[in-house]
Amino acid sequence: MRAIRLPALSMATSFGASAATWVLLQQFAVRGLVAIKFLAIGRMLGPAAIGSVSVALLAVAIAEALSDTGLAQAVIQGEHPPTRSQLGAVWTTLTARGVLISLLLVALAPLLSSQFHLNGSLVLIQLAALLPLLRGLASPTYYLVQRERRFQHIAGVEVAASFVDCSVGLALAYFGAGAASVLIGLVAGESLKSTLTWATMKPRPPIRAVWSGIGHYVGFSRWIWASSVVNLLLNQFDKVVVGKLLGPAQLGGYQMSSRLAQMLLADAAIAMSQYLFPTFAARHRRNPQSASRLIKIYLLVIAVGLAAFVEVLRLIAEPLFSLILGAAWLPAVPLFRILVINMAIGALIAVLVAYLRAVGDAKATVHASLIQVVVLLVSVPPAVHWWGVTGIAWSMTVGLGCAAAWMLFRTLAARIP
């Protein structure tokens, strides 16, 4: 009987509502659907269309980073869960932010179109402007669910939204909607996700303007905002330069190389950080020494696995591009070989950020980003002069390496009470 019960108990534990298994399944399903969508549409439409979509999404990323409130992370990390009234204040703040971002993007659409050579494709930026609005309207109870580590629930919502995004995008691209199909799919997915956060997650915050009750989050969230602003420069600088100087076609090749490398390397760690952040935070509240031991084990395992995988991807880069995307994308192979190193370091950083924020040291991530900024300011001008676009890619990689080294130092040297 004991031999029978133990596997059953193990299986039940592996698929409990808070098990990491759900994060991994979510990662596999969501990133798989994203990969299918972008790779299939990229093969159908070519680099120029993907570059045009990238400009629209780049505008959204810039606006959201500049206005990041840090409230989501503060709700998850805080010592006490928010009350229903406090959730209402969070929702009011995030909704107002989403409305303002959307209006700003619509107003700036003509300027962005001319600056990034979109040839009057205003509809792409206008469609992208719906995304921050829909995200702002979602119920902030989603962050409470994350705090409580109900990963099964989160996985259901995220997979459903990604499936709609992929299905709508592929169908529209197949029937000739062009680059707009990518953005319409994203809008459909975000609409479903926002609806599900209200329909399936409780407690529901009051739907009225509430502005007070979250002042205690400001001390933590200001570091999240600072990190977002600095990371805006770090994560989007290369894309802005390529898009502005070389146009949508070159940006499409650069972006697809980056996205493919991210799908294969960084996305798993970024998704895993959704599990690690609340898990480290909960463990740190109970036993800081245990959290410190756990992060060291994770870092060792992840670093060894990433090093081996990077080497394999660099060896098979050319046949991989030819098989998945076609001959039109082969000029992007040299960039891909650099960017897989970049994304491997990014994967390691995602784990370090989850830990440092969970233990309340969010400023360490800001300091790391500032180090990366200094490295870029010093290295980018000569790198671009001598090696062009590949020089930018190498500069980004060196900067990430320096940032990771600083966060690793802060993690290992932290004093545990």
From TrEMBL:
<keyword id="KW-1133">Transmembrane helix</keyword>
<feature type="transmembrane region" description="Helical">
    <location>
        <begin position="87"/>
        <end position="111"/>
    </location>
</feature>
<dbReference type="InterPro" id="IPR050833">
    <property type="entry name" value="Poly_Biosynth_Transport"/>
</dbReference>
<comment type="similarity">
    <text>Belongs to the polysaccharide synthase family.</text>
</comment>
<feature type="transmembrane region" description="Helical">
    <location>
        <begin position="297"/>
        <end position="316"/>
    </location>
</feature>
<dbReference type="GO" id="GO:0005886">
    <property type="term" value="C:plasma membrane"/>
</dbReference>
<keyword id="KW-0812">Transmembrane</keyword>
<feature type="transmembrane region" description="Helical">
    <location>
        <begin position="166"/>
        <end position="188"/>
    </location>
</feature>
<keyword id="KW-0472">Membrane</keyword>
<keyword id="KW-1003">Cell membrane</keyword>
<protein>
    <recommendedName>
        <fullName>PST family polysaccharide export protein</fullName>
    </recommendedName>
</protein>
<dbReference type="Pfam" id="PF13440">
    <property type="entry name" value="Polysacc_synt_3"/>
</dbReference>
<keyword id="KW-0732">Signal</keyword>
<feature type="transmembrane region" description="Helical">
    <location>
        <begin position="123"/>
        <end position="145"/>
    </location>
</feature>
<feature type="transmembrane region" description="Helical">
    <location>
        <begin position="48"/>
        <end position="66"/>
    </location>
</feature>
<feature type="transmembrane region" description="Helical">
    <location>
        <begin position="336"/>
        <end position="356"/>
    </location>
</feature>
<feature type="transmembrane region" description="Helical">
    <location>
        <begin position="368"/>
        <end position="386"/>
    </location>
</feature>
<feature type="signal peptide">
    <location>
        <begin position="1"/>
        <end position="19"/>
    </location>
</feature>
<feature type="transmembrane region" description="Helical">
    <location>
        <begin position="392"/>
        <end position="409"/>
    </location>
</feature>
<feature type="transmembrane region" description="Helical">
    <location>
        <begin position="260"/>
        <end position="277"/>
    </location>
</feature>
